[in-house]
Amino acid sequence: MKKHFATLIFFMFFGLFQTNYASEILSASTEVPIVKREFGENLNEKYTGSQFDYTEDIGENQNLIQNFLKWFFQKIGNSFNIEISNETVIFFEILFYGLFIAFTCYLIFRVLSTHPSFSIIKKEINPIENQEYSIEDIADTDYNRLISEALKSDDYRLAIRYSYLKSLQVLSKKNFINLNSKKTNSDYTKEIQNSDIKYCFKKISYWYDHSWYGAYDLNTHDFEKANTDFKQLENKVNYG
Question: Which CATH class, in words, describes the domain spanning 135-239?
């Protein structure tokens, strides 16, 4: 009984001590004076400049083009004492991207329209007299003369066409193919049994297709390369 009574007295004393301690802290905190602070005068004028402009993203979010245009127009504005808006900078940025895309498309078009390996885009073929030949024409025509005349006028495209028809003439005379107006290059290729001659014929067919039907503009160097393949085929047919 005495033990429980002593425990009760201890907790009552401890609770009274905690209450008095809390009251003292509260009283001390209420005695601290509150100081009222106000913004100084001319606050807007004090914090001006680009370092306090948070209306647009700067730094890592801007690429080299954006940084250059911003620097360029800032120099222009400072030189002529004028203010250039962000809308103006954005307009010229969009204009630059548009011109860059247009120039890139132009380069791609030029490559596709002039290179034989990328002859997806075909130029209009200018009409040339005597484009069509019958079987009799191929068998009896003097193609060496026609090739020489075409080279004199620097018409390498026509010279390759005559060289191709001459190759058909040579192959026909040696009985490697049978001329037929309805046959294609693939038909003649399948008809040739000699593997070396077949390979040479595929090469000259490539030159003919890309220069004539692809309207590829040839130069002297191109014709010399093509003419080497035509002579190789003729030599194999005549002496192989």
Answer: mainly alpha
